[in-house]
Specification:
single chain, alpha+beta, Arc Repressor Mutant, subunit A, Endonuclease, Chain A, seven-stranded mixed sheet, 10 helices, 52% helix, rod-shaped
């Protein structure tokens, strides 16, 4: 019986007290004798049981006599708790829905890694913003860069790109100017970097155009993507 009572949320000592009081209302000394629980702990447990509505007391001759609630009373308490919890379900589900997602950070190594990022751009099919573009794509990726741009245009994915005014950057910019769904501007050579930044959907990708070992870092995080998009828009105003 104690094991079954524990399943409704009582601990072992609370079960012993309840069963002892169910036999007859009595004083603390008798409860202590029946349950073998020391009196200092017994007072704490009795207080807990009273808070749960399972035990109450009356005073006779200035002495507290404790009594157990009827079993039906416990059932009523459990049903009431169930109703309270049911009323909370919509709020709990809503709270679960607003749980913040952690950013996903991934590293893609080599040419194949960068190809994976290009394929992701095609998969997401959102407007693509690119800046700090050094124009190294065709020399490092070869024909893949050309094929990708044809696929992007076929998918009608808009591209706004800011190329760096280096020899490679200007050459690549001229290529972009001939493409559909593409807007091109140029930034000063003094800001050139081995890495370009791409923003599409909820993703920021940083592409490191090293001849020997190109690689990319992809961060999937909506807030970060919005921040870099704002940065891109600010740059776009001052580029030509």
């Amino acid at each position: 019986m104690i094991e079954k009572l524990q399943q409704i949320g009582l601990n072992e000592k609370e079960c012993k007290i309840y069963l002892a009081l169910l036999e007859a209302e009595t004083v603390v000394s008798d409860i202590a004798q029946k349950t073998k629980i020391n009196r200092s702990l017994l007072y704490t447990l009795l207080t807990q049981l009273m808070q749960k509505g399972i035990v109450s007391y009356i005073i006779k001759n200035n002495v507290r006599h404790y009594r157990a609630a009827e079993p039906e009373k416990i059932l009523s308490i459990l049903k009431e708790k169930q109703q309270i919890f049911r009323s909370l379900l919509p709020e709990l589900h809503a709270y679960k829905g607003i749980k913040k997602k952690k950013p996903i950070v991934e590293v893609f190594e080599g040419k194949e890694g960068i190809k994976s990022i290009l394929n992701d751009v095609l998969r997401v099919k959102k407007e693509w913003y690119a800046f700090d573009v050094p124009g190294k794509g065709p020399s490092i990726l070869g024909v893949t860069a050309h094929i990708f741009q044809k696929q992007r245009q076929k998918a009608k994915i808009p591209l706004s790109v800011i190329c760096v005014k280096t020899k490679d950057g200007i050459k690549r910019g001229k290529d972009f100017e001939k493409m559909q769904y593409t807007k091109v501007k140029y930034m000063s050579e003094q800001y050139k970097s081995p890495a370009s930044h791409w923003v599409y959907g909820n993703t920021l990708a940083i592409i490191f155009w090293y001849e020997e070992f190109p690689f990319a870092i992809r961060v999937i995080d909506n807030n970060l993507a919005k921040s870099y998009k704002s940065h891109f828009n600010a740059l776009w105003k001052y580029c030509v």
